[in-house]
């Protein structure tokens, strides 16, 4: 009674959650194009677009996408066969277990005339599907542990999902093992189906089940049958229509042999009932979690792959873009392929901000779409977001077909709008007014710089000849360098010569430098003018990430 | 491995924003019997240099170490990538703490940076590795009479002792390559100046001003086309310019790979040129 209520509640949560997640596709604002458009208008835009999509000449090629990308997961196959095999095993193992086992009351009569879970081939199939899921879960867990870049990004949520799947499968296998062994289950079945028949026949059946069907029934010497024929007859009369030999359960049966020595104790505790409850509740939990976890990609990823067939998001109508972006965010399985191929991933080894890695940046963009995060989180997201070079490799590799390139560009606009521009737009003078995060330097490492600006000998040779200033194209482009740039290159070098580094940080010359190296090339005294300007910018960026207290501590 | 095989390093921006540079470069190199090998490399580190030297050097060093593992010189058509890879190698050679840190990080992947990993810019490969004479011999449709302004680009040229492309104060490599394909290299005073792209996002007004000065200078010198050999410079003189047209002149910008391809008689579409874009 309780359990059926639990299942109903779980199903209710699942359906309501799914509806809520889908509704978010039409409520999120990602990128500025859909600002101010109501959910109703967005839905209407989709309603209007749908007939066009269905009648579109590219619709039928989509059947191919459906078969290749969704049914066969061909994208993954092309990338990595082992991972494809693991994912297919998990995906289809779970799907078939849900269809043919969890929902057998509804599905079995449709497909099979005389279904019974303890008959073959169902018994064997159930074990086979469980084997597929377990192999997939185990393989994925091993990959999470050993893959170098993945080590940095595996999350607790991913681990919990794998754990939940493992609990469901393992409890199911143990449940079947304990049922094979259980004397109590045998007695109950005899009671129910044979009634108080001839005790000799029951004894023969007991013997048959002990020797042939794996039950942990004690067989006494005086019960030993001549050839087991009576037992077999009783079995065929009462049991065989629902019970195949359990040896075909190639996972549960060997485990039941291992457990046979403790079968008596297990039966006394009715472990089978406990395992059933665990198996059932864990399955209900998974059902309820479906829309709130990465399980949701079971729905969102196929939908996204079909939507992607229409082309890049930014080529589509403006009214549909925000919804397609939100769908893309939901289609992410956090598989880490983008991060594996990310061009700027090596920066993460020096700047330990996870938002540099696309798989983690996406989580931040997801939060950004849902609600305004605390300032520090936003600043970290901005740092990661503006580190990206938009090379587009993540988009080409994403097995879920997410238009990541478009997501990064759209979320950059959102970040700027919310007051988190790239660093270079806040020169050192204004940096203090913008909240920054403190993830800039690798913990435990001293800031690695060339130390040019702190060594007086860098500037010893400078004679203030103004060559650097006179060859500077930025100075040349200004009618009034003092007004436009605050200081000229040669004036900055003079400040450095006089150990007045602090005065150089705020000047606009530093941030308008085009890094053309004319100054350095032409310097008759070989002062590394451009390298010094680079180092000052590095220093300003680093300080912007530190608290005022930390800066004070450093300079003292 | 054939001696004229290079590990191709297109950099981040070419694929999404300037695919014609990739197409044209591959087409001309293939026509000149140069083989390009491909493996997954990462950002050269140039965009990170403002923010964090160690991170930018690590990224560059990883690419160099991969090239070393593959046993090929790196070839990049981008001058900013080239400059960054050379600068990183220079600073790694100069600074032991930086070197130890970088090699410590690379070790986890079984990689190692050392001093003798060759990096070549496309212009050097064409002018020196293949040679001007060999190019002249292969030109089937010389671009006779075409007045070309060679835009050098900063990061492959300076600091000269670090990047070692040519004489940083009086380079000739680009003009030589232009005359090799039958065109005329115009003399223009601002040929070694910045295109303005490095500050395009930070200060667009200044960036456009720097570009306009150069374009007007090339135009005044009689140039019919501006030639570039850098992803960022071409993006500036082409994409940025198209979004901000000026009334004074409409000097088109072409990648040197495209001009060379035309002179070699390669079809337009293999050079990423529309029919109307012939020079």
Terminal Cα span of chain A: 71 Å
**The CATH class of the largest domain in chain B:** Alpha Beta
Helix content of chain B: 40-55%
Tally the helices of chain A: 31
Please count the beta strands of chain A (DSSP E, at least 2 residues each).
0
- What is the helix tally of chain B? 11
**CATH level 3 topology of the domain at 457-555 in chain A:** Fumarate Reductase Iron-sulfur Protein, Chain B, domain 2
> How big is the Rg of chain B?
18 Å
Q: Taking all residues together, what is the mean pLDDT of chain B? A: 94
Q: Report the principal-axis shape of chain B.
A: globular
- Structural class of the secondary structure composition of chain A? mainly alpha
Proportion of helical residues of chain A? 55-70%
Distance between the termini of chain B: 37 Å
Under the CATH scheme, the architecture of the domain at 457-555 in chain A is Orthogonal Bundle
| Low-confidence segments of chain B | none
Strands of chain B, total number = 8
Q: Give the second-level CATH assignment, the architecture of the largest domain in chain B.
A: 3-Layer(aba) Sandwich
Give a verbal description of the structure:
Chain A has about 550 residues and is mostly helical. Chain A has a domain at about 455-555: Fumarate Reductase Iron-sulfur Protein, Chain B, domain 2. Helices cover about 65% and strands about 0% of the residues of chain A. Chain A contains 31 helices and no strands. Chain A has helices at about 1-25, 40-55, 60-70, 75-80, 80-100, 105-110, 120-145, 155-180, 185-195, 200-210, 230-240, 250-260, 265-270, 270-290, 295-310, 320-330, 335-340, 360-370, 375-385, 395, 405-415, 430, 455-460, 465-470, 475, 480-485, 490-495, 510, 520, 530-545, 550-555. In chain A, helix 8 runs antiparallel to helix 14, helix 15 (about 295-310) crosses helix 16 and helix 18 (about 360-370) packs across helix 19. Chain A is elongated, with a radius of gyration of 34 Å. The N and C termini of chain A lie far apart (about 70 Å). With about 280 residues, chain B is of the alpha/beta class. Chain B has two domains: about 5-120, Glutathione S-transferase Yfyf (Class Pi), Chain A, domain 2, CATH 1.20.1050; about 130-270, Rossmann fold. Helices cover about 45% and strands about 10% of the residues of chain B. Chain B has eleven helices and eight strands. The longest helix of chain B has 18 residues, at about 55-70. Chain B is globular. The chains are: A mainly alpha (about 550), B alpha/beta (about 280).
């Amino acid at each position: 009674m309780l359990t059926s209520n639990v299942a109903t509640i779980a199903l209710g949560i699942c359906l309501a959650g799914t509806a809520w997640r889908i509704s978010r596709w039409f409520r999120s604002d990602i990128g500025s194009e859909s600002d101010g458009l109501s959910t109703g208008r967005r839905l209407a835009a989709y309603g209007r677009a749908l007939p066009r999509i269905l009648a579109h000449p590219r619709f039928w090629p989509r059947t191919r996408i459906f078969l290749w990308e969704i049914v066969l997961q061909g994208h993954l196959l092309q990338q990595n066969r082992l991972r494809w095999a693991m994912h297919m095993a998990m995906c289809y193992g779970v799907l078939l277990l849900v269809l043919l086992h969890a929902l057998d009351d509804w599905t079995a009569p449709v497909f099979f005339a005389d279904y019974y879970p303890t008959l073959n081939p169902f018994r064997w199939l159930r074990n086979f599907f469980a084997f597929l899921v377990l192999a997939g879960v185990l393989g994925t867990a091993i990959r999470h542990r050993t893959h170098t870049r993945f080590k940095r990004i595996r999350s607790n949520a991913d681990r919990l999902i794998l754990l939940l799947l493992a609990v469901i499968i393992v409890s199911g296998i143990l449940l079947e093992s304990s049922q094979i062994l259980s004397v109590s289950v045998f007695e109950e079945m005899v009671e129910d189906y044979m009634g108080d028949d001839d005790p000799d026949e029951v004894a023969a059946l007991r013997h048959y089940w002990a020797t042939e069907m794996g039950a942990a029934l004690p067989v006494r010497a005086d019960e030993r049958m001549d050839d087991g024929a009576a037992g077999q007859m009783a079995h065929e009369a009462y049991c065989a229509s629902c019970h195949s030999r359990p040896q075909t359960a190639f996972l549960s049966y060997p485990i039941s042999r291992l457990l046979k020595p403790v079968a008596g104790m297990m039966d006394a505790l009715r472990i089978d009932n406990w395992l059933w409850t665990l198996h059932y509740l864990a399955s209900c939990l998974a059902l309820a979690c479906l829309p709130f976890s990465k399980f949701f990609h079971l729905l969102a990823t196929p939908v996204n792959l079909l939507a992607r067939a229409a082309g890049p998001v930014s080529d589509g109508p403006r009214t549909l873009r925000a919804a397609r972006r939100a769908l893309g965010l939901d289609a992410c399985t956090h598989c880490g392929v983008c991060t594996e191929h990310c061009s700027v991933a090596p920066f993460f080894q020096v700047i330990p901000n996870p938002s540099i890695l696309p798989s983690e940046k996406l989580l931040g963009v997801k939060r950004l779409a849902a609600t305004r995060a605390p300032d520090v989180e936003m600043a970290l997201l901005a740092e990661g977001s503006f580190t990206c070079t938009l090379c587009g490799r993540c988009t080409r590799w994403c097995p879920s077909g997410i238009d990541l390139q478009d997501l990064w560009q759209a979320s950059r606009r959102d970040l700027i709008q919310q007051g988190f521009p790239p660093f270079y737009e806040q020169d050192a003078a204004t940096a203090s007014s913008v909240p920054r995060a403190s993830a800039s330097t690798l913990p435990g490492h001293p800031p690695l710089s060339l130390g040019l600006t702190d060594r007086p000998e860098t500037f010893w040779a400078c004679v203030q000849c103004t060559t650097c200033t006179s060859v500077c194209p930025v100075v040349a482009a200004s009618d009034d360098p003092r007004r436009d740039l605050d200081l000229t290159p040669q004036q900055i070098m003079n400040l450095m010569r006089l150990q007045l580094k602090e005065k150089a940080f705020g000047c606009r010359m530093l941030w308008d430098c085009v890094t053309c190296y004319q100054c350095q090339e032409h310097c008759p005294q070989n002062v590394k003018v451009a390298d010094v300007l680079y180092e000052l910018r590095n220093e300003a960026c680093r300080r912007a990430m530190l608290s005022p207290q930390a800066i004070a501590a450093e300079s003292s | 491995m054939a001696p004229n095989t290079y590990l191709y390093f297109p950099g981040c921006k070419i694929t999404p924003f300037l695919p014609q540079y990739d197409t044209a470069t591959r087409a001309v190199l293939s026509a000149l019997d140069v083989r390009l090998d491909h493996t997954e490399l990462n950002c050269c580190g140039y965009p990170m240099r403002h923010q964090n030297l160690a991170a930018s050097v690590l990224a560059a060093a990883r690419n160099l170490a991969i090239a070393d593992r593959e046993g090929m010189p790196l070839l990049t058509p981008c001058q900013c990538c080239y400059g960054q890879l050379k600068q990183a190698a220079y600073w790694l050679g100069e600074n032991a703490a930086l070197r130890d840190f970088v090699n410590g990080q690379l070790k986890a992947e079984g990689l190692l940076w050392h001093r003798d990993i060759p990096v070549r810019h496309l212009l050097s490969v064409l002018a020196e590795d293949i040679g001007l004479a060999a190019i002249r011999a292969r030109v089937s449709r010389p671009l006779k009479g075409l007045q070309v302004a060679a835009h050098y680009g900063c990061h492959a040229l300076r600091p000269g002792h670090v990047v070692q492309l040519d004489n940083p104060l009086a380079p000739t490599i680009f003009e030589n390559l232009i005359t090799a394909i039958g065109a005329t290299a115009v003399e223009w005073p601002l040929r070694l100046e910045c295109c303005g792209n490095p500050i395009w996002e930070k200060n667009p007004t200044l960036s456009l001003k720097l570009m306009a000065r150069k374009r007007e200078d090339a135009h005044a010198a009689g140039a019919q086309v501006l030639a570039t050999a850098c992803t960022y410079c071409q993006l500036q003189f082409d994409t940025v310019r198209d979004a901000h047209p000026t009334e004074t002149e409409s000097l088109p910008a072409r990648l040197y790979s495209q001009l060379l391809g035309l002179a070699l008689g390669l079809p337009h579409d293999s050079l990423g040129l529309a029919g109307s874009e012939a020079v």
